[in-house]
Amino acid sequence: APAPAELRGAGAQAWGPPSPALLGPARFALEMYNRGRAAGTRAVLGAVRGRVRRAGRGSLYSLEATLEEPPCNDPMVCQLPVSKKTLLCSFEILDELGKHMLLRRDCGPVDTKVTDDRNETWTSVLPLLSKDPLPQDFSVKMASVFKNFLITYNRTYATKEEAQWRLSVFVSNMMRAQKIQALDQGTARYGVTKFSDLTEEEFRTIYLNPYLREDSGKKMRLAKPVNDP
Amino acid sequence: APPTWDWRSKGAVTNVKNQGMCGSCWAFSVTGNVEGQWYLNRGTLLSLSEQELLDCDKMDKACMGGFPSNAYSAIKNLGGLETEDDYSYRGYMQACNFSAEKAKVYINDSVELSQNEEKLAAWLAKKGPVSVAINAFGMQFYRHGISRPLRPLCSPWLIDHAVLLVGYGNRSDIPFWAIKNSWGTDWGEEGYYYLHRGSGACGVNTMASSALVD
């Protein structure tokens, strides 16, 4: 079905409380953002704007939203430095037959004033966003990269839901790899590996050795330098 | 230290192994070091058992993690290491069924190595591959090339992965450590990771150690 009339005309560029048509995807995006957080620590939705595009059997929502993080006193726990409360996020959500799938999430702290496009301030806040102008066929491209990943590493998933979840993790990991790439001072290349469908937490828990941080193990004597006769 | 060195081309390094879904990197880092020490001091390259360490090294935590220094001590106390073939890898902890008669190698001691990367390179070139522990930041998505993450992102204080230094050199004037990982050959450069050398990148110089074989 074509996108709801009020969306097409909904001033998709105007900030404001989510219009009824955006409410569903906006709430889903917030739910995914707060996933795993205890009550009282969850962010709440602020202003939303967005647009919708047909994609296959469903609709692809591109949302920009401000999220308000609750006050956080413990710097060791806070997602943000205590002084910053508002996040500016962009989400891409695929709505197929009433089922939502998060394809992309990108968030960063901003000043509490939300600026609009005309003075371009906010794009400078998320440089990666402005550098990557979100080509229209982004989702199609990601789906194809994910398909190659499944073939290369012979990956299968037990249910469709698991596959959808893994696709959203994969897409989010591609963003992470892109950031690691941008910040690397060497010649390393980062991208798709056999671990690309694991969340950071899964990867850390399964493959790494956090025990090494806790201690240094049995004390050993220092080796003599090699040139020591 | 010589400008470049690679124990892989000198027969002191076994094939890249795969720890599977288990936090047993510490065991692979130690067996890799002992394999090198046994080869350089006793002349035979044997692939040694990580499963024996998972099952019988009671000081460490098998798939939940462990320390190379504890593992050296366990090898000494047990009386040696069996080969990979005799005590093959499962990727999860079982009851210990080590038998001293089957042990093919032993170690006499273990030492902590210098945190000075030049001295470390000199030690490696003269004595053999070195067990180290690093911060694994970025390694989930590493494909190839010399990695050099920003220091705040790859803090030397947040060590969480043990690996094996097998060589060092320069690529286009960028100094690197050649690191044998234990995630299989379908990760990184045929299972190897290349990390910037000389800047303490990701804490590579903070937990260097080796067994000693008479």
List the helices and strands and how they pair.
The complex is a heterodimer of chains A (229) and B (214).
Chain A: H1 5-8, H2 20-33, E1 44-55, E2 58-68, E3 86-96, E4 99-109, H3 121-125, H4 127-131, H5 138-152, H6 160-183, E5 189-190, H7 200-207, H8 211-214, E6 221-222
Antiparallel strand pairs in A: 1-2, 2-3, 3-4
Chain B: E1 5-6, H1 25-42, H2 51-56, H3 68-78, E2 109-112, H4 117-127, E3 130-134, E4 142-144, E5 146-147, E6 161-171, E7 174-180, E8 192-196, E9 209-212
Parallel strand pairs in B: 5-8
Antiparallel strand pairs in B: 1-6, 2-9, 3-6, 6-7, 7-8
Q: Would you kindly provide a written description of the structure presented here, covering whatever features stand out?
A:
By secondary structure, chain A is α+β, with helices and mostly antiparallel strands. Chain A is 34% helix and 21% strand. Chain A is built from eight helices and six strands, in the order H-H-E-E-E-E-H-H-H-H-E-H-H-E. Chain A has helices at 5-8, 20-33, 121-125, 127-131, 138-152, 160-183, 200-207, 211-214; strands at residues 44-55, 58-68, 86-96, 99-109, 189-190, 221-222. In chain A, strands 1-2-3-4 form a four-stranded antiparallel β-sheet. Chain B has 214 residues and is α+β, with helices and mostly antiparallel strands. Chain B is built from four helices and nine strands, in the order βαααβαβββββββ. Chain B has helices at residues 25-42, 51-56, 68-78, 117-127; strands spanning 5-6, 109-112, 130-134, 142-144, 146-147, 161-171, 174-180, 192-196, 209-212. In chain B, strands 1, 3, 5, 6, 7 and 8 form a six-stranded mixed β-sheet that branches. In chain B, a hairpin with a 2-residue loop joins strand 6 and strand 7. Chain B starts with a strand and ends with a strand. The model of chain B has no long low-confidence stretch (mean pLDDT 97). Chains A and B meet through helix 6, strand 5, helix 7, helix 8 and strand 6 of A and helix 3, strand 2, helix 4, strand 4 and strand 5 of B. Strand 6 of chain A pairs parallel with strand 2 of chain B.
